[in-house]
TrEMBL record:
Belongs to the TonB-dependent receptor family. It comes from Luteimonas salinisoli. This is TonB-dependent receptor. Keywords: Cell outer membrane, Ion transport, Membrane, Receptor, Signal, TonB box, Transmembrane, Transmembrane beta strand, Transport. Residues 251-630 form the TonB-dependent receptor-like beta-barrel domain. The keyword Ion transport applies.
Length: 659
């Protein structure tokens, strides 16, 4: 995995909301006009680093990308990465069990998205811990400078799991003068339960002028339990209590070199109440304690011959469950140790070549994984990328990465992308292959789990990686006061790992024997439209729309819980510099759900509206307030099997104080 954090400082259209439909048809988003200062709109000249591991402008980066800035995150309540990504083009939220959510890119499973912190992979818990959304809480929101989102496979740079996309969280850096900020938010729902509170502090500045800098963040947040009105004493949404922080020491011994030492950590507690069924049902309390920690040391340098980057990191995640009454699940410990680096050099005026490699040791301690209660595997990889200037306004990016896995062998991940820029237009097109390695549990011949007394599940050491091949083509145009883009994509997945029955299948009164196998294929294709326009000097509109056709090719049916249509729009009004009002709309189209018995169920479409207000007093204090889910739309109150509960109408107040 390359060093992707460089020196830059810096979804038939029935019942579709009129505002989003008009925007999609007229504009075709997260973008700003070329010369405007549209409130809350994205700067297309912003520097991004995730697509190539080198600095590129957003509109010419060789990938389908969007960026969320620190200012946009501050404009609304954000408690985790899933909330930060809501409303972005091609991004959806998927239920992963226990009323928790995962991030889905272009209809792909949440486990097919890699999360990076400053370009560094963090250990993915979603494949090792059931119902895990713990990857969404690594970085405190107050520590985020921006979030870069790549839609499409990026295994050519980032290896396993990046067959759907990449979310790269870029942290705030120390500045040349001491600066700090305080942030507080409090949210109160209209119904019972679910109150939210958040307090964060940031400070950063020089310890030694032009040589040594320090940035620090501490964050405290709490979300109260939401009771289930249908089953008194149980939870509809679990309670969360989280403390997190980070500290980065940056040393710049010269103009062309920088060394960063970072610590990132946090502790989180989740509490929920459930109903244990049976002849003597009872209410139980389940409490998860989750501890995260990461240490990272990195160097980047510019030399006479080119550039280099080198990183060492170690990340761990521990989960302990307590249950009363009843038996808790066993403790689980994940650890990733990574060393990676790259060299980049420009040859003549047409080629910038990057070569690099990665070594990663993935470890899991879990009593279920095997008789020893622990397992590990080694990943090794090398990659090559060539950014080729073919002619004036034409660029071709070619890349390939070879990953060698200790268990299943090797995997190539090639990628090619062409970019053409001319007279305000940017045309892009490319193809790439991504893969996802089987998890340690899936590969272990000794893995065993008894699930709900209905089946026994075993691992399979003969599994192959899941592979996707994606093609995409896009066009975008930038005018003086507006911007629009359209993207078409096709994604074919093969060797998808599914749980299949191998013995005692369908026999009443006995437990089925199941295992993992590479059996499934899927086809996902769609269109993404995005754009922004300055309606007046004080009024700006931006939005996006995604059409998705997702099918299970083996079962010959639509994939479950994927919306054909989705979209989002924001209308921002800034009558004076100090005040901004934003009206947000998010549309989630109808979805199909396949129960274990009976025909498919159609989950109706839903539209969520929110209002955000901000007022700046002087140069230091900003007051914020608003309403989330104004219409109190909650599909989970209509369909009890809806994969995750929508938060009902709630009101929030907050402030930002800079010093």
């Amino acid at each position: 995995m390359p060093f992707a954090h460089v020196a830059a400082r810096s979804s038939t259209i029935r019942r579709f909301p009129l505002s989003i439909l008009v925007l999609a048809a007229a504009l075709a988003g997260h973008a700003s006009a070329e010369t405007s200062a549209a409130p809350g709109a994205t700067d297309l000249d912003a520097v991004v680093v995730t697509a190539t591991a080198s600095e590129r402008t957003l509109d010419t980066a060789p990938a389908s990308m969007s960026v969320i800035t620190r200012e946009e995150l501050a404009a609304r309540p954000v408690y985790d990465l899933a909330e930060a990504l809501r409303g972005e083009p091609g991004i959806g939220l998927s239920g992963i069990g226990l009323d928790r959510r995962g991030v889905s890119v272009r209809g792909m499973d949440p486990s097919y998205t890699v999360t990076l912190l400053d370009g560094m992979r963090v250990n993915s818990s979603i494949g090792a811990i059931a119902h895990s959304d713990y990857d969404l809480g690594w970085m405190p929101a107050a520590a985020i400078e921006r979030v870069e989102i790549v839609r499409g496979p990026m295994s050519s740079l980032y290896g396993s799991d990046a067959l759907g996309g990449v979310v790269n969280v870029i942290s705030r850096s120390a500045t040349d003068a001491w600066r700090g900020s305080l942030r507080a938010n409090a949210g109160e729902p209209a119904a019972d339960g679910g109150s939210r509170r958040q307090f964060a502090v940031y400070a950063g500045g020089p310890l030694v002028a032009d040589t040594l800098g320090l940035s620090m963040v501490a964050d405290r947040s709490r979300i109260d339990e939401t009771p289930d009105p249908l089953v008194p004493g149980t939870s509809r949404r679990e309670a969360r209590d989280a403390d997190s922080g980070s500290a980065t020491l940056s040393w710049t011994p010269g103009e062309f070199h920088r060394v960063d030492l970072r610590w990132l950590g946090g502790r989180e507690e989740r509490v929920r109440h459930g109903l244990q069924s049976g002849s003597n049902p009872y209410i139980y309390e389940s409490r998860d304690e989750v501890d995260r920690e990461q240490w990272a040391l990195s160097h980047r340098g510019r030399w006479g011959w080119g550039e280099s980057g080198l990183r060492l990191s170690r990340a761990s995640l521990d989960k302990i469950n307590h249950r009363a009454p009843g038996n808790p699940t066993g403790p689980q410990h994940l650890r990733d140790e990574i060393a990676d680096g790259h060299l980049a050099r420009t040859f003549g005026e047409r080629h910038r070549v990057t070569v690099g490699g990665e070594w990663r040791r993935e470890s899991l301690e879990d009593v279920l994984v095997n008789t020893a209660g622990s397992d590990q595997t080694i990943h090794r990889a090398v990659f090559l990328q060539d950014e080729i200037a073919l002619a004036d306004g034409w660029e071709l990016v070619l890349g390939d990465r070879y990953d060698r896995h200790q268990r299943f062998g090797g995997q190539h991940s090639p990628r090619a992308y062409l970019v053409h820029e001319r007279d305000g237009w940017v045309f892009k097109g490319g193809a790439g292959r991504g893969f996802k390695a089987p998890t340690l549990k899936q590969l272990s011949p000794e893995y065993y789990a008894s699930i709900a007394g209905l089946l026994e599940l075993f691992g399979n050491p003969e599994l192959r990686p899941e592979v996707s091949t994606t093609y995409e083509l896009s066009a975008q145009y930038r005018g003086e006061r507006w911007h629009a883009q359209a993207t078409a994509f096709e994604n074919r997945l093969r060797d998808l790992i599914e749980i299949v029955c191998v013995e005692r299948c369908g026999q009443p009164g006995v437990m089925e024997i199941r295992t993992y196998r590479n059996v499934d294929r899927a086809h996902l294709a769609g269109i993404e439209l995005a754009g922004a326009v300055d309606l007046t000097a004080t009024l700006a509109l931006e939005g996006n729309y995604t059409y998705l056709d997702a099918r299970d090719e083996d079962a010959d049916r639509k994939l479950e819980m994927r919306s054909h249509h989705s979209g989002a729009a924001t209308l921002a009004w800034t009558p004076v510099d100090a005040f901004t009002a934003r009206l947000r709309a998010e549309y989630i189209g109808s979805q199909l759900e396949y129960p274990s018995r009976g025909p498919a169920i159609e989950v109706p479409a839903d539209t969520l509206y929110a209002l955000d207000l901000s007022y700046r007093i002087g140069s230091a204090l900003t007051l914020r307030g608003g309403v989330e889910n104004i219409g109190d739309a909650r599909q989970d109150s209509i369909d009890l099997q809806y994969p995750y509960p929508q938060r009902g109408r709630s009101y929030y107040l907050g402030f930002d104080l800079d010093f």
